[in-house]
Design brief:
homodimer, mainly beta
Chain lengths: 135, 135
Amino acid sequence: MSDSSAGSDAIFEGIKWDGQGLIPVVVQDEKAGDVVMVAYMNKEALALTQETKRAHYYSRSRKKLWLKGETSGHFQVVKSIFLDCDGDTLLLKVDQTTAACHTGYWSCFYRMWDNTWKPVGEKVFDEHAVYGDRT
Amino acid sequence: MSDSSAGSDAIFEGIKWDGQGLIPVVVQDEKAGDVVMVAYMNKEALALTQETKRAHYYSRSRKKLWLKGETSGHFQVVKSIFLDCDGDTLLLKVDQTTAACHTGYWSCFYRMWDNTWKPVGEKVFDEHAVYGDRT
């Protein structure tokens, strides 16, 4: 066990990790009420989140721990953590800095079904300026 | 293709189904703003949801299509459907009848971390009266 998770094992009780040792996490901005993203945590990410009050996740594509905001500065200050009835999904209520989505939208759920997946809302930052021209 | 999904294929565009042909769905009560549950849809469930405006899911444990409210009467009238930036998660904004959780709580996320997973909020219905004494 890493130092970062020392003493935080109690939060793991009742959590049902999936076959990859992960749990999906719904993230809601506490003030606005908007669901801004869904990501995944492993035990280390949850322990670090609890300890630092900054949301950490496990990137399934990059296969590594990830501090939300480490590149963009768009951190999530965690206000509260909820577990669902089945123990297989978490909900974080956060104070989202600037925007949650890497596309520049406030929420990752910026496309609404209206005969097509239509972008709604406005971009709040320029993703190229923040992340560079990654392809 | 079943009749129920006839003509509704456009909504599938841009959706990345997981290895089991499913997509996680975050459900938010539009009026209250609360995240009330997370469930999974397959293509048939999404097509039926779009067609009927009543949320349908695919139960991973029972391995079958499921109309939310079919037993309890606690239907979800779908107001809008959002897709996230990666195309791998949906968000439904709904009008939730009575309560979302089979435990009797309004939201499935009724346990908040406070040194233990502490139930918060109040039960709004008696789950034994609604579902019977299933064990």
